[in-house]
Amino acid sequence: MDRTDDERALAAQLLAVYRDLHAHPELAFQEVRTATKVADRLRALGYAVQTHIGKTGVVGVLENGSGPVVLLRADLDGLPVLERTGLPYASTVRARDASGAEVPVMHACGHDVHLTCLLGAAELLARSRQDWSGTVVALFQPAEEAAGGAAAMVADGLFERVPRPEVVLGQHVMPMPVETVAVRAGPFMAFSDRLRIVVHGRGGHASRPETTVDAVHLAAHVVVRLQGIVTREIAAHDAAVVTVGSLIAGAKANILPDTAELNVSVRTLDESVRESVLAAVERVVRAECAASAAPRPPEFFHEQRYPMTVNDAGATERVAAAFARDLAGVRVIDPGSVMLSEDVSELSSAAGAALVYWFIGGFESVPARSFDFRRPPAELPSNHSPRFAPAAERTIGLGTRTLTSAAREWLVPR
Ligand SMILES: [Zn+2]
Ligand SMILES: [Zn+2]
């Protein structure tokens, strides 16, 4: 495809923005530098900018005559992951997490792609403002990674401070071929519940286990037994995932600890399945504690609940039609419902707006034509991998075009 000088110049600028954001990732609710960069660029484009909504959130509003209000959303935060992409602009950043521990930080989920694409779309929409009327709200939320950034913006009076949108549009880069977009009407992404569970034993000397209640042994049984919930208690036609992502217990071979901590992620696509799984997790943990003769009952901390992401049927049809019309050479697929989770629907629910959320591909090694979302090639690194490295220029080009195309579907041509 031939590009104009303008398009080439914008692509080069966005690539520089992306490399800078990628090299300087920040953890949830610490996105001060990123928020400042985003706000400065929006102001330069003529957006009315508000900062510090929900701690580090940024919103730019472009009012351009009468017509629908369209909200475009990106997320600001990186992850505590040590980058191993080998890229010349790889992150070497370290920071303190919410618990005070020093951790490496990486844009391992691709939120730097989302930020750059939204800045690109904000620019294209500002440049073409003589062609449309309506209002564009470019929203950059903090802390998407399981920390509730969207809800924090809503609680901070987001929709008293910016116009209430008719539609909320957002996207996520995925391990799919670049030039592929995945979108689905209805239930799209899962409920996510994160539990921190503390089980209590009685510590002591490793040589005298009979004088202790071994919290390590107890926790190990919990881990194994929890995997029976999905296989033995949930119907094959229902979907659920129970993952123990972290198990923390003890420090030395010769000391049995007093406690063990498990951090559990539960994903479901149906409220009644969700309730069954959560109840089963609690039952299994309590029963294993009883089986070990734990001196105290376990403690449960429900640290995060993300709602299901449900795309509005009518609005999704409009977005799919806009992509088919505007994105020549891009393959649009239906990925089915997935067990990933997002907090973007906190925004659409609070605004009473329709939601359309989709995935964009970011990788060149796989041919788009034969790609099957449910069976990705093993060599494609998933989001949160230390090797997650989208093909920057083409991915940003695609994501800028998808956001612009979807937004223009609502903005009134003139
Ligand atoms: Zn993520
Ligand atoms: Zn993400």
Automatic annotation (TrEMBL):
Molecular function terms from GO: hydrolase activity; metal ion binding
Entry note: cofactor: The Mn(2+) ion enhances activity.
The UniProt record lists the keyword Hydrolase: yes
Pfam families the UniProt entry points to: M20_dimer (PF07687), Peptidase_M20 (PF01546)
Peptidase M20 dimerisation domain ranges (all copies): 195-290
Binding site for Mn(2+): 109, 111, 145, 172
Keywords on record: Hydrolase, Manganese, Metal-binding
Cofactor: Mn(2+)
Protein known as: Amidohydrolase
Organism: Jiangella anatolica
